[in-house]
Amino acid sequence: MLNDRKRKILQIIIEDYIETAEPVGSRTIARKHNLGLSPATIRNEMSDLELLGYLEQPHTSAGRVPSAQAYRLYVDSMVDSMKEEPGVLTENDRALINSWYKERIRNMDDIFKSTAKILSRMTQNVSLVLANKKSTARFKYLKFLPLSDTQAIMCIVTDDGAMDNGLIDIPAGMSSAEMDYLSGKMSNLLEGRRLTEITGDLLQEVYSAVSEDEVMLASLKKAISNIAAKNSEQKVFLGGAKQLLNQPEFQDVGRVKNLLGILEEEKVVKDILNAGDDSGLKVTIGSENKFTGIKDCSMVQATYRLNGQIVGTMAVLGPTRMEYRKVIAVMNYLHKYLETILKDPK
């Protein structure tokens, strides 16, 4: 258990190191911070913190740097209380986020692209956004194109501009005019629904209002189910990979190449983001990360929901010397903002 003085000194070292990326010495602490302690007293406290595993000494420096254990204590006991402090996220920050979305959103993909970009811009780290297309795409309209006397191609267009099609059975001799009437009526009744909502029961209710042919209904159910399954693939959006080059920790070319290689592997990124839980905002530090390639990084991660269901994940990846207070404040605000937009992207 750390006493108040040790906690204060450790907090100062962590925040100074986050700001400067330079090892912190006792004289610097005494000069910059009004603790009422001599450099010798601070040095003794730092020695104790090092023995307890909270500080480490780089080979070429007389100063100390925080360990992963120190960052964990900082995140658990300090950032939680700091994230709601006025000034962590300024009014200008909020205004930037609001205008960023309003100027860029035309479809669902734009929402996630914008989230990745603004998240990276505001945190100066790499951002990762995982979206479940099936959970977010909204039905726009459908069209039937006759193929033969008993078959047609059904085309479904969603609000993100994507089009999918499937083969369906139709009543023998059904005319193009009848198909247009049926597709128009169904489109009017289903427009704005998410693909996840167009279940067998809803489809049957809508279809039964305009037709009684059971063969075509069964065929429609199967085709729409196949389209929904195809659209269930998760999609990854990245932002700010070049931000790595601005971090002192990533001046080593080999280290940067390794991390960029991981970020280029979409399956690996999906695995990383899917490995988190749904307990809200989560911070993993250094070796706490399960994936070897990011064990010297920190990741702040949060799931976002629609109608109570998890539909994706957003995360910030950077050095353990991350500005946790700012990152968590941005993540919390964006998380709430994103969930609001997803309910009504217009």
From TrEMBL:
GO terms for molecular function: DNA binding. InterPro entries: GAF-like_dom_sf (IPR029016), HrcA (IPR002571), HrcA_C (IPR021153), WH-like_DNA-bd_sf (IPR036388), WH_DNA-bd_sf (IPR036390), WHTH_HrcA_DNA-bd (IPR005104), WHTH_transcript_rep_HrcA_IDD (IPR023120). It comes from the Bacteria. Keywords: Repressor, Stress response, Transcription, Transcription regulation. HAMAP family: HrcA. PANTHER family: HEAT-INDUCIBLE TRANSCRIPTION REPRESSOR HRCA (PTHR34824). Belongs to the HrcA family. Negative regulator of class I heat shock genes (grpE-dnaK-dnaJ and groELS operons). Prevents heat-shock induction of these operons. NCBIfam families: hrcA. This is Heat-inducible transcription repressor HrcA. It comes from Succiniclasticum ruminis. The gene is hrcA.
